[in-house]
Write a structure and sequence with these properties.
Layout (H helix, E strand, L loop, with lengths): L3 E5 L4 H13 L4 E8 L1 H7 L7 H22 L5 E6 L2 H12 L3 E6 L4 H7 L2 H8 L4 E5 L19
Parallel strand pairs: 1-2, 1-4, 2-3, 4-5
Helix pairs in contact: 2-3, 4-6
Amino acid sequence: MLQRILVPVNFTTASARALAVTRDYHPQATVRLLYVVNPSDIASATANPAINPTHARDERNKAEQEAFARLERWKRDDEEMAVAVGSAAETISEHAKQWEADLIAMGTRSRTGLQQFLHGSATEWLVRHADQPILVVHDVELAEDQKRHLPPLEQTG
């Protein structure tokens, strides 16, 4: 029986669907939502060489707090949440090991050709290298009874 399921989220429809499927298939499991902050996002905010290291730390704290606020809107009362900074695939793998996850459940969008070559895929890397089994949920329409498990999706644009 799966007891600890890590669900990395990036606030896309695909990750929302992975969370919904996890909630539907494994209602008794402890679920932890994980958001990984990309270090280049913090670095771009502090790219000016005149900016001191304290500003970089402030930018990291700001990015982490924003991520926690977004995760709070997605999680249910009995779920856990975490934020980490690093390369998505390696950070997810390391977090899953440290937390002793039984499964990693991830959403994925279909990328092909040049798009896949340029952007890579954390999901693909984890399928090949993670120590835990990976549940991959494609960005497809969910069954009606699974939709009740979706987190509130944010409006863009």
